[in-house]
Amino acid sequence: MHYLQFKRTTLLLSLCFFAFTGNIFAQEVLSPLSVNPAKVYYQKNVVNQPHGLRDSDTLELPFFDDFSGKDIYPDSTKWTDRHVFINRFYPTNPKTLGVATFDGLNEFGLPHVDSLNPGPDGPADTLTSKPLNLNPFGPEDSVYLSFLFQPQGKGDWPNIGDSLVVELLFNGVEWRKVWSVDGYTTQVSDPVFRHVMIPVTDPFYFYNGFQFRFRNYATITGNNDHWHVDYVRVGANRTVNDTIMNDVSFIGVPDNILRNYRSMPWNHFFDYQENELKEDFEIRFRNNFNAAKNTTYELEVNELFSNTNLEYQSPVAFNFQPFAEQSIFFDTEDFTPFQDFQTDSVIIEVKSYLNPAGDVNPLNDTIRSENKFFNYFAYDNGNAEKAYGVEGVGLKGFAMRFDLNEPDTVRAIKIHFAQILEDVSNMLFSIYIWKELDLSNTGEGDSVLYIGDFKRPHYIDERNGFAVYVPEEELIVDGSIYIGWQQTDERNLQVGFDISRNSSDRMYYQSNGIWYTSVVNGTPMIRLAVGPDLGYIATNVNEQALNSTNRDALFKIFPNPGNDLLNISMLNTKAEAKSELEIYDINGRLIIREEINGANYSLNTNSLRPGMYVVRITNGQSTETYRWIKQ
Fold first, then answer.
1. How many angstroms from the chain centroid is the CA of residue 282?
2. Is residue 560 packed enough to be buried (19+ CB in 10 Å), middle (13-18) or exposed (0-12)?
3. The most confident of 3-7, 361-365, 408-412, 554-558, by mean pLDDT
4. Mean pLDDT lowest for which of 63-67, 276-280, 315-319?
5. Is 37 helix (H, G, I), strand (E, B) or coil?
6. pTM, full prediction
7. What is the C-alpha to C-alpha distance for residues 422 and 330, in angstroms, rounded to an integer?
8. Could you write out the DSSP letters of every residue in 352-400?
9. 201 and 132 in contact (C-beta within 8 Å)?
10. What's the rounded Cα separation, in Å, for the pair 631 and 626?
């Protein structure tokens, strides 16, 4: 058993400075999240959610799911509940493309028990199959349930008191436990996927409506105690040795094509492609079969806004050895230099295909990655797995280096504040932009370009949303600069932390005026927005100030600022059922016109470039105008 507030990694990177400050020091801290940002955002902002699942129809054998879909919830045609998290980034060394992750959160991405006080382990997530028709079979047909599982992965390790359980529905009435695994006494140093084979032998399981389910027992106050389940199969005429998967699959998340950033402005990339593109990027896949597979792979590189093909590599055939993992490295020096799209918003998609002979599951044979060139520099991938901060007594701070290829104007500092159980939204800190840091601690001091005092963290009601801090004056920068904060509060700011990319060589933390290079593997989610003035509004400005609405408004638009989804909710029941929605860019051009039916409407804005837009909603004789910012 363990508790969220104690289950964190404390990195004592600055020792006690007895000669200078007695025992005063600051330290870097990593903490687990108390929520799942993806689920919280989905529940709050996706208006047209499915309600209820149809359980009247039973499924025929064989049953199979490898969780390779894009949805964060289980496939509702195969499962009856929505507690687990479908993802591709929590497992380590996966066998296929996706997993179902069990944790201490509910289906809405929130703790089962919202408390800072220690509490017991308890039942957490459940993954229940749709009813299966086992009536045509009997004990003599050798029906097996099989799956892969991994503890911890890149997440939090399940320890004593935690467990993963499998239960079968006996005679349509009683759930009976048939398998379980307990947590561990120490952190799992090298978690692997293990294969489990469960025979279905009791005659009372062979009826039309049979179900099975996975359950985990965890500390139910946060996003912890992770188990990852993959490749669930139920079928007849199997044996205990039937562990072979006749499947060639991509594994993991594909590489980014950029050398230094996950995202960067196009004007800082286009004329500097030789330095900003990786020499090569890796795509990984695995042959899970016990025989060699003749396989071909091919690659496309496309710009999505203009639908332009930038690169195509025709199919290459090779003989893939059994149980082998293969990495293909694509050399970007062979690419034709990317053309100039004469715009500030570009998305380059890298799309790879596999075509293995005799493959039983084509869903995991295609993989895509998007490389975004918008108006900001980012090292992170937009997904927070942990929270990062610097805590302790005295003055302390953090800085991250950003390297610009040409002069540009700072428009905003964007920070994702992760949600853990301790709310620090009342904490004061100062935003800093430095030209140079005294990293050698010579006493010469730092070269400061900007200080923004009396800032507070803001938790954004959006999936991994970023709080926006806008400098009061225009600031032109060039070359290397450092973005970060200073604080005197002993608590840490709990900045979202992406574990997929190690940026520690660009990260520095400060204790009582002395800078130290970070040794934390990962990336705090802090971004630098530059370029033309897009009308950024600081997050601490009331959202109502963004809208030309009042207490008699007919509609509310949210989130604002937002990303790829704009929601419209009708506030006044006297409004007519039908409305017309129009979106204009800052030049007054009509971009989107849609008809709204009903009280709630969600619009996919993925095709819109970041910037400020005017939203007009006409209902009967009334027209309301809103200012909306896409980040």
1. 20
2. buried
3. 408-412
4. 315-319
5. helix
6. 0.76
7. 44
8. EEE--TT-S-GGGSEEEEEEEESSEEBSS-S--SEEEEEEESSSEEEEE
9. no
10. 16
The C-alpha atoms of residue 210 and residue 58 are separated, in whole angstroms, by: 9
Average pLDDT over residues 78-100: 93
Residue 275 has pLDDT above 50, yes or no: yes
Chain Cα centroid distance, residue 530: 24
- Residue 429: band (very low, low, confident or very high) from pLDDT cuts 50, 70, 90: very high
Q: Do the Cβ atoms of 303 and 346 come closer than 8 Å?
A: yes
As a whole number of angstroms, the distance between CA 578 and CA 466 comes to: 33
Condensed to tens digits (0 to 9), the pLDDT of residues 493-524 reads 999 999 989 999 999 999 888 999 998 999 99
406-415 pLDDT, tens digit each: 999 999 999 9
pLDDT surpassing 90 at residue 21: no
- The β-bridge relationship of strands 611-619 and 622-630 is antiparallel
Cα–Cα distance measured from residue 106 to residue 223, given in angstroms and rounded to the nearest whole number: 9
Question: What is residue 81's three-state secondary structure?
Answer: coil
Specify the DSSP class assigned to residue 130: P
Backbone angles phi, psi at 531, to 5 degrees: 100, -155
> Is there a contact between 84 and 102 (Cβ–Cβ < 8 Å)?
yes
Residue entry with tokens 């039983």: 360
Q: How many CB atoms lie within 10 A of CB 421?
A: 19
SS3 3: coil
Phi/psi of residue 165, each to 5°? -130, 145
The tens digit of pLDDT for each residue in 288-319 reads 999 998 888 899 999 998 889 999 988 888 88
Per-residue pLDDT reduced to its tens digit, 310-365:
999 888 888 889 999 988 888 888 888 899 988 888 999 999 989 887 677 888 89
Domains and CATH numbers, the chain: 9-30+384-530 (2.60.120), 37-243 (2.60.120.260), 250-375 (2.60.40.10), 543-630 (2.60.40.3080)
- Return all residues near 134 (Cβ < 8 A) that are at least 6 apart: 61, 143, 200, 205, 206, 207, 208, 210
**Phi then psi dihedrals of residue 37, to 5 deg:** -60, -35
Q: For tokens 């489990």, name the residue.
A: 196
45 φ, ψ (degrees, to nearest 5): -120, -15
**Cα–Cα distances in angstroms (integers) from residue 523 to residues 214, 229, 359, 503, in the given order:** 33, 27, 37, 5
Residues contacting 67, CB < 8 A, separation 6+: 74, 86, 96, 97, 98, 99, 100, 229, 230
Residue type, position 6, single letter: F
Asked, as a colleague might, if the bond just before 610 is cis with ω within 30 of 0, I would say no
Instruction: Please check the confidence at residue 128 and state whether its pLDDT lies above 90.
Output: yes
217 contact partners, CB below 8 Å, separation of at least 6? 121, 122, 123, 124, 161, 162, 163, 165
Query: Residue with structure tokens 């599951």?
Result: 361
Q: Provide the 3-class DSSP secondary structure of residue 545.
A: helix
DSSP state at residue 492:
-
Q: Residue 545 is encoded by which pair of tokens? A: 């100030």
Calculate the average pLDDT of the chain: 86
Q: CB of 349 within 8 A of CB of 369?
A: yes
Using CA atoms, how far residue 71 sits from 39, 76, 131, 214, 572, in Å, is 11, 10, 22, 19, 33
